[in-house]
TrEMBL record:
It holds the Pfam family Methyltransf_11. GO terms for molecular function: S-adenosylmethionine-dependent methyltransferase activity. InterPro entries: Methyltransf_11, SAM-dependent_MTases_sf. Residues 64-157 form the Methyltransferase type domain. This is Methyltransferase. It comes from Bifidobacterium canis. Keywords: Methyltransferase, Transferase. GO terms for biological process: methylation.
Length: 249
């Protein structure tokens, strides 16, 4: 079985077990968003600045690896034309369930973002990409595909793990791994993930993640850092994630 199939099945299991990123927004949150009271997350705790999102009324928005009915229902409530791509059956089902509950249309595409995106050039005005590229080995092709399907002047908003989470033990008190963390190369990394039911995860450098966007042609507008939200690293205020706002010229 290829590693993305393993990850899709793992994500389905996490959703059934109450995973944070698989919990759909409530009807009350949807109604508040319609009134202009909303926030979305791309990283664990810090909301995306509204300036980054802008006015999405009538805009074409892609949620890339963004299933689970968290970001996209908010975009729909704000008047966007929404598409979501995710490889998890349960995450896709949640998107459809919430859209039916709230009465909006969404195009749900179950697919693997490591493959060429099934969209024409210039298909979207905004892409939302919550933390998810830690589940793929090569990130640069994804950035190139995002650049291709985004219209000129469009924004690409993404959340990314910085790699710090992969060097520490489960108590976050000891450095036990070097980088990169790659279960396709390291048997030790693979066995650790299997023991923790962690799917297949990969560390990525800022050079890969920010540099990869720049190499694809994006212009970086802004960024912020975030923590895990709990645990020892969070208690010490050690940032472990970043979010970036990039624009296609």
């Amino acid at each position: 079985m290829d590693y993305q199939s393993i990850n899709a099945q793992t994500t389905d299991r996490w959703v059934d077990d109450g995973w944070q990123w698989g919990e759909p927004i409530s009807h009350e949150d949807f109604e508040r968003a319609k009134r202009g009271d909303w926030d979305i997350l791309l990283t664990p705790t810090k909301p995306v600045p509204h300036e980054w999102v802008g006015d999405v009324r009538g805009k074409r928005v892609l949620g890339l690896a963004s299933g689970g009915a968290q970001q996209m229902p908010i975009m729909a409530a704000l008047g966007a034309q929404c598409t979501v791509l995710d490889y998890s059956t349960r995450q896709c089902e949640s998107e459809l369930e919430v859209s039916q509950r709230e009465g909006y249309d969404i195009n749900v595409v179950q697919a693997d973002m490591t493959q060429p995106l099934p969209f024409a050039d210039d298909s979207f005005d905004l892409i939302l990409h919550p933390v998810s590229n830690c589940y793929i080995e090569q990130v640069e092709p994804v950035f190139r595909e995002c650049f291709r399907v985004l219209s000129s002047g469009g924004s690409f908003l993404g959340g990314y793990d910085t790699g710090v989470n992969y060097i520490v033990d489960s108590t976050e008190t000891k450095i036990v791994h070097g980088l990169p963390f790659n279960p396709l190369v390291s048997e030790e990394d693979r066995l650790e993930l299997e023991q923790d039911d962690g799917g297949m995860q990969f560390s990525h450098t800022l050079e890969e993640q920010i540099g990869g966007q720049l190499n694809a042609g994006f212009v970086l507008r802004s960024l912020y850092e975030d923590t895990n939200g709990d645990g020892r690293l969070h208690e010490l205020s050690i940032p472990t994630f970043i979010a970036t706002w990039s624009v296609k010229p």
